[in-house]
Amino acid sequence: MHSGKNDSELWIAFLKGDQQVLSLIYLLHVNALFDYGCRISGDHDLIKDCIQDTFFTIIKNRKTLSPTDNVRLYLFKAFKRKLIRELQKKPRFLQMDTETAGRFELNFLKSFDHAELEVTEEQKERLSGALNTLTLRQKEAIYLRFIRGMNYHDISVIMDLNYQSARALIHRAVGKLRDTLHGESEFFSRALLFIFRCCRT
Amino acid sequence: MDKYERYKVDDFLADDYFLHWILHPTEEEQRFWEKYLEEHPEKRKDIEEARFICSIFQVKQKKLSLNETYEIWDGVLQSSKQLKTLRWIPLLKYAAVFLLLFLSGAFAYYLYENRGQTEHFELATGTVPVDDEAKIILSDGSEISLEKKESKINYNSSGNQLIVNNDTIRQNQLAGTEAINKVIIPYGKKSVIRLSDGTIVWLNAGSQLVYPTAFLREKREVVLIGEAYFDVTENKSKPFIVRTSTLAVTVLGTKFDVSAYPEDKFVEAILESGSVSLEVTGKNFLHLNKKVLLKPNQKGSLNREDGVMKLTEVDVSQYTAWKDGMLKVEREDLIRVLKKVERYYNIQIELRDPLAGGYLISGKLDLKNSPEEVLNVIQLTVPIDWARKSNGDFIIVKK
Known about the structure:
- Helices cover 68% and strands 0% of the residues of chain A.
- Chain A is mainly alpha-helical.
- The model of chain A is unreliable at 97-101 (pLDDT under 50).
């Protein structure tokens, strides 16, 4: 019945009182939310509880919600807020070491290869090294951009940044990876180019 | 058309239209970029590098099982139902919210609370990794992989020597101390373990068992995650205790099955002969230490969420058939049957139509057959159709 509709149309149908369609919205997004949660915490039960709570809150507050053309952004933002709050609530002795320091798990293909670019073993080594040096914020931004395919606006909302900072965050992270890929010499030439650009503007 | 004229790698990566093509290409985007590359061969290098950077991160994503997906949604509906009935009594509403929070907090508490009771628990935490190999971990930390689909492990009576399939392994153990061993069986495999006291344990797919090589203490204690069938050697002076995250099963000598998969809502113990007592071991006040005595052909089923224990008369063979490679079901939901099939073969089955999950199935499935054959048999009883996706997962749709 609703199969052809996109999620903002489903959202409006839900706000008008059709409770059933929320389950379609849920099915569209639940795995993305779960995967995102797993990057932030290793506690799967807690993540599932937070997903449940996110949708429960939507039903509870249906009458006060407004139409949105970006359901996914709304869900990610609400879910993240709940998850972080729950993680902070956990007694310290139950937290995993990595959670106290904050964590964001960004995995990458062990065997990355490209049909046309020749990537040497040494480059791969360096690349995984470089990936591990990314900051938590950079990892999260990279995740939202290149795995979830979000635009800078959505990323900035989810991460509480302004648009320019979100863009710069990803730009720097990608730059780090590309420099590693090309070796040190290019890094310096790019750095020089950057300084040159700065002087010009 | 050429807004891309001055684009370099970074600019492509910052372009939403480009990124969409890389991640979820539509036909229209595919046509556009193919044509673009043809007309602008000089851009090829930059585009390929941008594509490469994206590809580094495309690892397999975490996915909820179908069962979990529906469990969460059920939870949403449950709590919103409470919302409706309690709307007129504001004070009670707060009580309900409090209870809900409490319940969700209790989840994380189970395993942790129980860890103190026995040091074995430190070894048995978490879920069994799905694509991990079957192995036995000895007390010194060394691992022996169990290559067969159905492996046999056999301890001698002093526990210092074990035979794995056909290889004999010696374990050094200090006199008077318990050496702890652990067997991990991933989905798609099974194992039979003969412990040093002669007790035989059939360990089902996706399970872990932690046990001492020799039982030197007053009680014989083992820890189980997942499902196992126990044929316990009688020893009145040394009770045999199976601990799971929420339930302890105490026996003197008997045959029974325990199912305690972390992802299942219920922890179940089914008694074939003899007598066992079940004890809820959570320590919060919802789970005051309750003890229940199970009679033969009874099933004790503990709901992890509300802590309620139910006893029912059952056909035991239905629950223990798995150890002989059979799956017997009696008026069971399709979704639960599929979950068992998934575990047994270590496959993913996606149910496209949620309503189909409610079909009730009765009968016997021979799990020595291929998963395709098993699905064909299921298909004879309920109106479904199945297919295989390109990644090997199965899809089930309503006919």
